[in-house]
Amino acid sequence: MSRCLSGEYEHKLDAKGRLIMPLKLRAELGESFMVTKGIDKCLYVYSNEEWESFVEKLNKLPITNRTARTFKRRFLSGAVKCEPDGQGRILLSPKQREYAEIDKDVIIIGNGEKAEIWSKANWEGEENVTDDESMAELADKLDELDFSF
User: Care to name a GO molecular-function term for this sequence (predicted)?
Assistant: First the structure.
């Protein structure tokens, strides 16, 4: 059975760059998990199992393809294994925070097989874009990907 992380949680970074991961997500992700750069100016959080599966897919990309090499480098170079401390906090590296434009206010969402960590400002911008495009319009576009409900 595949994992399905869900929910939206608002948190703040502390002065040391630590973030409390929601208990519900920690329970699904496990004792340690991987945090890496995402595609939309956010960070992706994978369980170790999902991470290994994703890396296997990345490793199948042809090394002769420049785009594949560049994507793999950028994705893997930003990956950090995180183990929450006794208070459920993880440390986001300065490079991760800079990439995702995270300063203080953070939104964490469950998104199927992974969680995503967003700056509050970027998440609100993403929501506004999505609000402009109705769920019905988005669902219609999924037909192009052979996805059906």
Answer: transcription cis-regulatory region binding
